[in-house]
Design brief:
The chain is an alpha/beta fold. The protein has a 5-stranded parallel sheet with strand order 2-3-4-1-5, with helices on both faces. A two-stranded parallel ribbon has the order 6-7. Strand 2, helix 5 and strand 3 form a beta-alpha-beta unit. Helix 10 packs parallel to helix 12 and helix 12 crosses helix 13. The longest helix has 17 residues. It starts with 25 loop residues before the first helix and ends in a 5-residue tail after the last helix. The N terminus is likely disordered.
Amino acid sequence: MTLFGAPEPEESPEPSTFSDDENAPLAVRMRPRTLDEVVGQQQLLGPGSPLRRLVEGDAPMSLILFGPPGTGKTTLANIVSTATNRRFVQMSALSSGVKDVRAVIDAARRTLEHGGRPTVLFIDEIHRFSKTQQDSLLAAVEARTITLVAATTENPYFSMVSPLLSRSLMLTLQPLTDGDICELVDRALTSERGLADSVTLTDDARAHLLRMAGGDARRALTALEAAAGSVLADGATEISLEALEAAVDTAAVRYDRDGDQHYDVISAFIKSIRGSDVDAAVHYLARMIVAGEDPRFIARRLVVHASEDIGMADPTALLAATAAAEAVQLIGMPEARINLAQATIHLALAPKSNAVVMAVDSAIADVRAGLAGSVPPALRDGHYPGAAKLGHAQRYVYPHDLPEGVAAQQYSPDELVGKSYYQPSQRGTEKAIGERLAKLRSMIRGEKG
């Protein structure tokens, strides 16, 4: 197909990333060619879903495909183009600029003017386009000169311009499950487009392959192809764990994400942080990363630990853990390993205190035991007719009116007057907090020092 000349006859072959060439990468040969062949992403493929309506109804709709690597973004772009009988043009934001985009748009416009097929423009890693580069697509998308299918691994709400977002349908792809990857591996082992039963895979090799894949189909099939090539070259037909390790140069980590090892390693990780052993904590973090543990799971545990075992002894620990969790969502692996490591080191080195969790759990225990009296009248809502007659909010002292900003008045229900839940430690920032807390409690409760 000539992009910049006159349109070719409709019967000319359509270029795509589908291939039957035995020399093409296994991941390309095994790429699904219809929606029914797609594994995973069932939330996008059900009857009546926007994607299925687009493919089956030939509706001109631009798409933004957001998800981790190897989840099927390029596959879906190809299916859209072939199922809707459109020209398919692919470019990468890494190597293309405004000039390239405009050339494709001009060619698409000329093709339409000559009665040719509409054009699907697939842009991979569109988040790498600048605002100006993204803006250059707007007019063509709005006029439907092209159907844009854009793929990104970064949150489009942060990485794409709002006008382009509003003109497109955003579809979020999820990481493939181990079951999905296993199905793809089995298909590749037996399919004539794949390895055609030339090799088999042992159970421990399969388990390691799933760990390495981490929800990335392309990674799994690339590793499988490398291992198959290696054993066939040696005259063998079985891919063992050792053969797989040798082929992909990655040591197997004894770690079962669904079994005891999953819980043992995360337990050791948290206990190492609690014990302030930064080196052990980083080791267990590395084991989870290499084993393909969900980084969001690791991030969630760090956020909980920051309040449970550090709390006000270092208030910045929760900020660091939360920032790492957000970085995992925005950046993804493998780069987010650095953010997880920074948070792990911060929390391991921080002074420790469980005063926060002890305070809230003690208060919850009292409430469950029935210690939940009436709200003092001065603290009740006074923003409605008749509140004053009930005595609500009438004797409330506004703290900002006082020199020190603290008023001596009752805040707790009668049943809990004098109850102290939060007991700060003498470690880190809580040592200073404890001194201030003693003064505050004395002032609020009207105690004479």
